[in-house]
Give the backbone structure.
Amino acid sequence: MGQVTIYLDERTQKLLDKAVTAAGVSKSRYVAGLILRHAGDDWPEAVRGLAGAWDERFPDQEAIRAGLGCDVARERL
């Protein structure tokens, strides 16, 4: 098991103390939980819920260029 040393300013230390007291866990367990929640390699549920929520049909070339007008004639070299 790895160990990490962190240095906290007084305000942050007080916030951590309140949070671990409210959660009823050790500081190590609380910080480990934060790391697992925020540094994990899984997409958040809000992002996964977007899958299939948009139209996956991409417009073809003609639809993209519709309304752009005609190309200007190129100068002959």
Residues 39 and 45 are 14 Å apart (CA to CA).
